[in-house]
Design goal:
Oligomer: single chain
Structural class: mainly alpha
Largest sheet: none
Pfam families: BPD_transp_1, OppC_N
Membrane topology: Multi-pass membrane protein
CATH class: Mainly Alpha
CATH superfamily: MetI-like
Distance between the termini: 22 Å
Number of helices: 13
Keywords: Cell membrane, Membrane, Transmembrane, Transmembrane helix, Transport
Shape: globular
Mean pLDDT: 83
CATH topology: MetI-like fold
Protein name: Oligopeptide transport system permease protein
Order of helices and strands: HHHHHHHHHHHHH
Helix content: 55-70%
CATH architecture: Orthogonal Bundle
Number of strands: 0
Low-confidence stretches: none
Transmembrane segments: 38-59, 106-131, 143-163, 238-261, 273-292
Length: 306
């Protein structure tokens, strides 16, 4: 029993000494996130992948469109490795290592911009609906429910058909549909937070509603917003990959993981690595973001604070 307690002395000042340093909510959340070894592994893995997406295309002497017809469908044979084709070559003799990381740059760019649009639009829309309530909330959320009654991929495909394939079109189409899920989450958080005393005091003092939303409500819902955005990044990457896989995604000569997987699938018998490598990277990235998102959700949950 004596090992379960620590004597701090008889002196009053000594007994009131704080032996555990105080931490803010975010500091404690960061501490708990770091304790999750699996999440930290995937977090650092994602950072490495982001780094390679930036510098990867410059690590080799071959451009992502540069062709060598004498070195087609090569993968890890002595000649291709000696020539610097670390991930082999495709049907045109293009360096697949360079194309993979050039594709990662496009896929990550689409996902991050789409998630940024989703975060800004969805947070403001849900915050306004939840704060004002009444008829404003009723009509705003009925509009969201009507839009969500049709699968978002149908809207995306229709916009792609109307606007034509392209990087900007994919970003516009995905950003115009994905914010609705964020709006529902933010609204539910705002409805819970706005009944608390500090928000009621600001309302009683006549504070501007947009000031209350941006200074009180949204910051206190930030945990759920961050978790949702983290989990939506792999969904955006997978959606782009699906669009490219069915032929209405990134047009040539641009490359993304989805377009590379689509090209590799058509050449699966002659060059299986052309499909396997981008498919594995998409799967790994999706898994990594999901695990990091789950760890963030646990770390930001005040109920689990110790």
């Amino acid at each position: 029993m004596k090992h379960d307690f620590t004597f701090v002395g008889k002196d009053l000042a000594e007994s009131e000494k704080i032996y555990k340093p105080s931490m803010t909510y975010l500091e404690d959340a960061l501490r708990r996130f770091k304790q999750n070894k699996l999440a930290m592994f995937f977090f650092w893995s994602l950072l490495v992948m982001f780094l390679f997406a930036i510098i990867g295309p410059y690590l080799n002497k071959y451009g992502y469109r540069e062709m060598n017809t004498d070195m087609t469908f090569r993968f890890w044979d002595a000649e291709s490795l000696k020539a610097g084709y670390y991930f082999g070559t495709d049907n045109f003799g293009r360096d697949f290592f360079t194309r993979i990381w050039a594709g990662a740059r496009v896929s990550f760019t689409i996902a991050l911009i789409v998630v940024f649009i989703e975060g800004v639009v969805g947070t403001l829309y849900g915050g306004i609906a939840g704060f004002f309530g009444g008829k404003i909330d009723f009509y705003m959320m009925r509009f969201v429910e009507i839009m969500m009654s049709v699968p978002s991929m149908i809207y995306i495909i229709l916009l792609m058909v109307v606007l034509g394939p392209g990087l900007k079109t994919i970003i516009i189409a995905m950003g115009a549909t994905r914010w609705m899920f964020m709006a529902m989450i933010v609204r539910s958080e705002v409805l819970r937070i706005k009944e608390q005393e500090f928000v009621m005091a600001s309302i009683a003092l006549g504070a501007n509603p947009m000031w209350i939303i941006t200074k009180h409500l949204i910051p206190n819902a930030l945990g759920q917003i961050i978790v949702r955005l983290t989990l939506d990044i792999p969904q955006a990457i997978f959606s782009e990959a699906f669009l490219s896989f069915i032929g209405i995604g990134i047009p040539v000569p641009l490359a993304s993981w989805g377009s590379l997987a689509n090209e590799g699938y058509q050449l699966l018998q002659r060059g299986p690595h052309l499909f396997v490598i981008p498919a594995l990277l998409i799967s790994f990235t999706t898994l990594a973001f999901n695990i990091v998102g789950d760890a963030l959700r646990d770390a930001l949950d005040p109920k689990l604070r110790k």
